[in-house]
Amino acid sequence: MAAEPALVRFSERGTETARYAWIELDRPEALNAWTPEMGRQLLAAVNRASADPSLRAVLISGAGRAFSAGADVKNPRELLPDGTPDLSTRLREIYNPIVLAIRSAPKPVVAAVQGAAAGLGASLALACDLLLAAEDAYLLLAFVRIGVMPDAGASTFLAERVGLARAAQLAMLGEKLPAQRALEWGVVNAVHALRRIGRNQPNKKPNSSHEDNHSPHREPFWGAPCWLAVASPLHCDAVPLDTRREIEV
Q: What residue ranges define each of the domains in the chain, with the CATH number in brackets?
């Protein structure tokens, strides 16, 4: 049986005494839309980073022109016995555990967002302790457009940052929240030029087998805020029971 393709990249950066994990969603041709296999790889990467005491922080980013467009709607859902699509199993077994792993990580987790962070992509970004955005970034709770509730903790995490009124507005109307307004509302911590957030041009391939996308001379600007996270004690040591219940609902 052929091995599953790598849909999530994991690398370690920093110095010997201040190292951090860099986790990158790597389906740029699909705007890093989630599949079950990608979710499993992301969960494994988050758990690996959390369990390694030599890694002081975690950075999550997306390859190409988007952070993540959310769940891949082209990936067929499993069917329930009555023939209707199963909308809960993937959430319960794969996607919610990712969010819970981030929220309970014993170290700060930073999201670096460019382009779209929609649906599950928005949930992932909002679950992180710090959220950095490129000028072209936006968050979108697109769930209402397909007639479902925001999932993977999105409504809870958004309300924590902006309050119930604004969270309801974004969830019920399905409006885009552009980076600058997100900064003004306190959803993101900083907004930077795309050239300082984005690592590569969309779908750009390495020039040779010796120059991959994680070459040291391609170190992104957003590595720097991870050093701030390394020095910061402000992170979520455990997921409160009420939050866990809201995510699982």
A: 8-77+84-199+218-248 (3.90.226.10)
